């Protein structure tokens, strides 16, 4: 009985896995007119070259707004953490803060370092949701 069940599972898995392979349609699409595409590109490039810098900036801004409007909610959340380019003053400030924190860390005793690590981990765990805590093993 077990052998029949195992055999049926293998047959079912094989059939299920082969469906996407059979469904993959490799028929060629409609032929693309390369000359037409090149002409359209040359025309667009000519219009772009004729624009003033202000018009180019406005066009870029409009294209960016269109891209943002087309993003899904998940993509929006994923891009929220993206900070983009950092100015020179911000970079210098961050570098100074990093150097200051490193100096403080180097001045600590091993016991102080261990206590700091323990406090940081406790803070991190307290910020996790219940589901995340369960996956961590808490």
Q: Could you characterize what this model shows?
A:
The chain is mainly alpha-helical. Among the domains are: 36-76; 109-138. 80% of the residues lie in helices and 0% in strands. The chain is built from 7 helices and no strands. It has helices at residues 2-23, 34-50, 53-70, 73-80, 88-107, 110-127, 130-136. The protein is flat and about 70 Å long. The relative contact order is 0.03.
Q: What keywords describe this structure?
A:
138 residues; mainly alpha; flat; 7 helices; 80% helix
In short:
The chain has helices at residues 2-23, 34-50, 53-70, 73-80, 88-107, 110-127, 130-136. With 138 residues, it is mainly alpha-helical.
Specify the structural class.
mainly alpha
Distance between the termini: 42 Å
Mean pLDDT equals 78
Helix content: over 70%
Sheet-strand content, in percent, reads under 5%
Q: How many β-strand stretches? A: 0
The number of helical elements comes to 7
The Cα radius of gyration reads 29 Å
Shape annotation: flat
The SSE string, one letter per element, is HHHHHHH
The profile of the biggest β sheet is: none
In terms of per-residue confidence, which ranges show pLDDT below 50 for 5 or more consecutive residues? none
């Amino acid at each position: 009985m077990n052998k029949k069940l195992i055999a049926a599972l293998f047959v079912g898995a094989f059939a299920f896995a082969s469906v996407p392979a059979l469904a993959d349609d490799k028929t060629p699409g409609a032929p693309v007119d390369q000359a037409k595409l090149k002409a359209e590109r040359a025309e667009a490039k000519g219009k772009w070259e004729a624009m003033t810098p202000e018009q180019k900036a406005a066009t870029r801004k409009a294209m960016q707004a269109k891209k943002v409007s087309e993003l899904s909610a998940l993509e929006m959340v994923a891009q929220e953490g993206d900070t983009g380019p950092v100015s020179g003053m911000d970079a210098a400030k961050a570098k100074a803060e990093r150097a200051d924190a490193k100096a403080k860390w180097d001045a600590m005793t091993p016991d102080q370092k261990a206590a700091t690590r323990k406090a940081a981990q406790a803070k991190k765990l307290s910020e996790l949701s219940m589901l995340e805590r369960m996956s961590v093993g808490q």
